[in-house]
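Dear colleagues,

For the upcoming journal club I promised to circulate an example of a predicted protein-ligand complex. I picked one with adenosine monophosphate because it came up in last month's discussion. The inputs are reproduced below in full, followed by the predicted structure.
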Amino acid sequence: MLNLVLFGPPGAGKGTQSAFLVERYHLVHLSTGDLFRYNIKNETELGVLAKSYMAKGQLVPDSVTISMLEDAVNKNPEANGFIFDGFPRTNAQAAALDAFLNSQDTGITSMIALEAPEAELRVRLAERAKTSGRPDDADPAVIQNRIDVYNNETAPVKAFYEAQGKYKGINGVGSIEEITERLVAIIDTL
Ligand code: AMP
């Protein structure tokens, strides 16, 4: 199996690049943000809970997020592999993902991080707000909170994969095609 963690701050391009990688490598794309938004749209209990955190740019608690992700993996028993987008976002999530995948005799192949300066992220998110319909893209204070949460709680997850020799960072600034090429150059060596 090819199991990739596509990592990076909000606005780094994880969702955009996932769409290309899914097609090229025949993987299942699992975005925890998309799963939460689906639940919000369908007004599930999980959606109601998630909404209160997402609206403020805070992380949804680990226990709920981890079990939602595990359910989504279990729903795809035939998958060649997965792109995890927006997960793991804490070291506890990373450890839970390892344990879960190990129990299924598989594991994370690599974490690839899209790196981009904060000023660029703010511009991209403001631009995305015009079409995404996402309330958390529309409010500069919420965007700042998401960037802060990334720096404080999520960035340490890099070290988790670095310790396993699985971390690869790439420059996330450039055209969509250029960044896809950089990703493909790495994935083809895995
Ligand atoms: P995203 O679509 O990845 O930008 O995520 C949007 C929001 O969903 C985040 O700001 C969090 O509130 C929530 N979220 C998504 N993934 C996670 C996760 N792995 N852990 C906790 N909260 C998450």
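Two points we might discuss: The two ends are 11 Å apart (CA to CA). The mean pLDDT is 96.

See you all on Thursday,
B. R.
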